[in-house]
C-alpha cells in the first residue's frame, strides 16, 4: 500500500531526485521519530543534510494540487460509495511569530481560545468502507489579504483574495464534485451550517446535508411566516417527539442519543428548490445537552439516514487526531504558501496509507479476542516490518554536529542583530 500510494503521484515529479525525496519524505512522516520537520526527516532518510527535504518543499518543481488530485483518486477507488459523505472542518496549529502564511491571533479549536495560530480548512471523505482527509485550504485572514506586501513575502499568489472558511469549504466541495467523487451528503459543524450561502451552494450541487447550527439559529416555520430559535423549538417539543437511536459505533460501543425531527421546516432563501428541509435535534442521554442540525435532501429521507450522517461528522475529528499524532500534520516549520500546501499534501498521503491499510485489515474475518487494527497500530507495524531506522553511530554523530553547528550560527546571527539594533542612534 505504501508503494502503491506513492506510485500514484510519482509522475508529477519531472526529475528523479525530488521523486525519491518525496518517497523518503512520506516514509519519514510514517516513521517513529519524535518531531517530523525537514531536519528529522532527512536524518531518518540517511541524508547528510536537510537540503533535499527543504528543497522539496520550497524550490523543487511540482504541483501539490495535482498530487492532491491523484491521492484523492486513490482514496475514492478504495473508499468510494454512492452514499458517501463529504465532511468539512477546520483545525489550527499554534505558531510563534507573524511570518508563517495565515498566522494571526484568532480563535482555534485546538487551543479552545484565541491564540497566535495558523488555521487550515479540510475536506474529509467517509463511507462504510473507511474515511480520511482528501483536500485542504489554508485560511488567510483579512489582515493578510489586505497586506499584499506581506502576502508576497509569504509567496501567496496575487490572484488569491480573502475567502471565508465556508467559502473555502464550498470550493473544496465543488472540486470534489467536479472530480466525480461519489457522495450524496455533506456534514459540517455550526461554523459552516450557520452560513446560508454555504447551504445554498450545497443545494445547487444537489447534495443532501446535515449541518450543525447554533442554538440561536432561526428556523423558518409555518411556510416561512415565522422564525423561531432552534432551542425554543426544542423546548416546546413533547416527550413523544424524541426517539433513541445510535449515531454510530464508538470506541465503547454504540453512541446512543435522543433525537427529534421536524420535517415541516421551510427555506429562508429559495422556496422553490424542490428539496426537503428539516431540523434535527440531538439530546445527550446523560447531560441533556442539545445539538441542532439544519438538514436538506433532494428527495425524501428517513430519520435513520440523517442520524447516520450526523454521526459521520465525527470522522473528521478522528482524522485530525490521527494526522497530528501519527504523521505530523501540525509539526511543519514552513512559512510560505507553496510549502504549506506541499507539506500538508504529503501528510495527507501518509494518512491515506494508514487509513487504507486499516480498512484492508478490517475486511479480514474478525477474531473474538482482538479489536480491529487501528491507524495507530498500523503505523507501529509499518515501523516494525518496513521502516528500518539508521543506527550507525557515524551517521548520528554527523547529524549531532550539524545541528549544533547550525544552531551556533543562528545564535551568533541573533546576537549580531541585537547588537546592531542596540547601537542604532
TrEMBL record:
Span of domain Transposase IS701-like DDE: 9-219
NCBIfam families the record matches: transpos_IS701
Record protein name field: SRSO17 transposase
Amino acid at each position: 500500500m505504501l508503494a502503491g500510494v506513492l506510485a500514484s503521484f510519482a509522475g508529477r515529479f519531472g526529475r528523479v531526485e525530488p521523486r525519491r525525496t518525496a518517497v523518503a519524505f512520506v516514509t519519514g512522516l510514517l516513521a517513529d521519530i519524535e518531531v517530523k520537520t525537514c531536519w528529522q526527516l532527512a536524518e531518518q532518510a540517511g541524508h547528510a543534510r536537510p537540503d533535499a527535504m527543504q528543497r522539496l518543499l520550497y524550490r523543487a518543481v511540482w504541483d501539490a494540487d495535482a498530487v492532491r488530485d491523484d491521492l484523492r483518486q486513490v482514496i475514492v477507488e478504495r473508499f468510494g460509495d454512492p452514499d458517501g459523505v463529504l465532511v468539512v472542518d477546520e483545525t489550527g496549529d499554534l505558531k510563534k511569530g507573524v511570518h508563517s502564511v495565515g498566522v494571526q491571533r484568532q480563535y482555534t479549536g485546538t487551543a479552545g481560545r484565541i491564540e497566535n495560530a495558523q488555521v487550515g480548512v479540510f475536506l474529509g471523505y467517509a463511507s462504510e468502507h473507511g474515511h480520511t482527509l482528501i483536500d485542504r485550504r489554508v485560511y488567510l485572514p483579512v489582515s493578510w489579504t489586505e497586506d499584499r506586501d506581506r502576502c508576497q513575502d509569504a509567496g501567496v499568489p496575487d490572484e488569491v483574495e480573502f475567502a471565508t472558511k465556508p467559502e473555502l469549504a464550498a470550493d473544496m466541495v465543488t472540486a470534489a464534485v467536479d472530480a466525480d467523487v461519489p457522495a450524496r451528503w455533506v456534514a459540517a459543524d455550526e461554523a459552516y451550517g450557520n452560513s446560508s450561502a454555504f447551504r445554498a451552494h450545497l443545494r445547487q450541487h444537489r447534495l443532501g446535508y446535515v449541518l450543525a447550527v447554533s442554538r440561536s439559529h432561526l428556523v423558518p416555520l409555518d411556510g416561512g411566516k415565522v422564525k423561531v430559535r432552534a432551542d425554543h423549538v426544542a423546548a416546546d417539543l413533547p416527550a413523544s417527539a424524541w426517539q433513541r437511536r445510535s449515531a454510530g459505533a464508538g470506541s465503547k460501543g454504540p453512541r446512543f442519543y435522543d433525537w427529534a425531527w421536524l420535517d415541516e421546516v421551510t427555506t429562508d432563501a429559495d422556496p422553490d428548490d424542490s428539496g426537503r428541509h428539516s431540523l434535527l435535534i440531538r439530546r445527550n442521554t446523560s447531560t441533556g445537552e442539545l445539538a441542532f442540525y439544519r438538514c436538506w435532501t433532494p428527495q425524501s429521507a428517513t430519520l435513520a439516514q440523517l442520524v447516520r450522517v450526523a454521526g459521520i461528522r465525527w470522522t473528521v475529528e478522528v482524522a485530525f487526531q490521527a494526522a497530528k499524532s501519527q504523521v505530523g500534520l501540525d509539526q511543519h516549520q514552513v512559512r510560505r504558501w507553496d510549502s504549506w500546501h506541499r507539506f500538508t499534501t504529503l501528510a495527507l498521503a501518509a494518512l491515506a496509507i494508514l487509513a487504507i491499510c486499516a480498512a484492508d485489515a478490517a475486511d479480514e474475518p474478525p477474531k473474538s479476542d482482538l479489536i480491529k487494527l487501528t491507524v495507530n497500530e498500523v503505523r507501529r507495524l509499518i515501523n516494525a516490518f518496513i521502516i528500518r531506522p539508521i543506527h550507525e553511530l557515524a551517521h548520528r554523530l554527523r547529524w549531532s554536529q550539524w545541528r549544533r553547528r547550525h544552531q551556533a550560527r543562528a545564535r551568533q546571527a541573533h546576537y549580531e542583530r541585537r547588537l546592531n539594533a542596540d547601537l542604532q542612534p
